[in-house]
Design a protein that fits this description.
Blueprint: E1 13-21, H1 23-26, E2 37-43, E3 45-46, E4 49-50, H2 63-70, H3 72-75, H4 77-83, E5 89-96, E6 102-104, H5 108-115, E7 122-129, E8 134-139, H6 145-153, E9 161-165, E10 171-174, E11 180-182, E12 186-193, E13 199-202, H7 218-224, E14 234-235, E15 245-249, E16 254-260, E17 263-267, E18 274-287, E19 290-295, E20 299-302, E21 308-312, E22 316-322
Length: about 325
């Protein structure tokens, strides 16, 4: 292995949420005593929530320490020139037992000016959905800021929002400025820029255990909403077996879908790390004298310096992510 690097697993960072449920524990086998686990941060370089290696020789080191030590060997030359010792992506699993707040995220320019942060372009892959569960993505009609603010004031925002009923495998690209929410009964994978900046515009008037409503950010949000977006958020992708099927390709990440039924050889030609997220079944990542298994609900990072490896499974579904 080059400079001791190998495919890296990390300890999940579990987040209790007012809207969270039990699927991350019961379906994805995440270990927690908390009753309402809403998120599992699989790979994170967010300040205060840095991932820690959980496998083999580098176990116990943080993602920040890895970046400081291995730099471009971990993330690739071009990524290191752009991001330095900052990992560019945040990978999560999310379980919504209740509806999440209606929200949006600022673009890079606004996020840098207001929060010294990246923006938050993201995508969702639905892993499981209860009957008639849905997501909110965008508006159901052309909307002006004035009309939007009137509905917000009258608490009739849901009348102008676009509801999408979902099932396993459905994929959505959530650009900055697009109003959205994950609906009750949906468990999904989220791939996003490294940012934790969210503008919450409506939270269903719910209160926490102390009787307090969560903070809203409508003054910030009105400048960040893109009212001129196309309805091109639902992603269609091919399902060819044992191949990388392109789902989303944007300046911040590329994500492919792989339905794996045999051993395939992979070559990293991207000058980037590659992340594999197992969304069904189990698969082995094999290189030289090294092998690591990922099962449903697990994530692994292949450092950029590792150019050749194999994926092996008789029945797995993987998301393949790189920058």
């Amino acid at each position: 292995m080059k400079n001791n690097l190998y495919p890296l697993k990390f300890q999940p960072i579990l987040k209790e949420k007012i809207w969270g449920g039990t699927k991350l524990k019961t379906i994805l086998n995440k270990k927690s005593d908390a009753p309402n686990v809403g998120e599992s941060w699989e790979i994170s370089d967010v300040e205060g929530d840095t991932s820690i290696v959980s496998n083999c020789e580098l176990k116990g080191l943080t993602l920040k320490q890895l970046l400081a030590t291995y730099q471009e060997e971990l993330i690739g030359d071009k990524n290191f020139k752009v991001f330095g010792e900052k990992f560019p992506l945040l990978i999560k699993f999310i379980d919504a037992k209740e509806d999440l707040s209606i929200q949006l995220h600022p673009n890079d320019e606004l996020a840098a000016k207001r929060h010294n942060s990246f923006g938050k372009t993201e995508m969702w892959y639905v892993m499981q959905a209860d009957d008639e569960a849905n997501l909110i993505v965008g508006f159901n009609q052309e909307i002006t800021p004035e009309v939007y603010l009137k509905h917000l004031e009258n608490k009739t925002l849901t009348k102008i929002l676009n509801f999408e009923q979902v099932k396993e495998g459905d994929t959505f690209f959530i650009e900055v400025g697009r109003v959205h929410a994950i609906g009750a009964g949906v468990m999904l994978t989220e791939i996003q820029q490294t940012s934790d900046i969210t503008y919450r515009v409506y939270d269903w008037d719910r209160k926490d255990s102390k009787g307090n409503e969560r903070e809203l950010h409508n003054d910030l949000a009105i400048d960040a909403i893109n009212f001129n977006m196309k309805d091109d958020f639902k992603v269609s992708y091919s399902n060819l077996t044992n191949e990388s099927n392109k789902m989303v390709s944007c300046p911040y990440f590329t994500t492919n879908f792989i339905k794996l039924t045999k051993t395939i050889s992979k070559e990293n030609v991207f000058d980037s790390f590659i992340i594999y997220i197992c969304v069904e079944g189990a698969a082995d990542i094999i290189m030289d004298n090294f092998s690591e298994t990922i099962i449903k609900g697990e994530t692994i990072l292949i450092p950029a310096a590792l150019k050749h490896f194999k994926l092996e499974s008789n029945n797995a579904k993987l998301l393949e992510v790189y920058v």
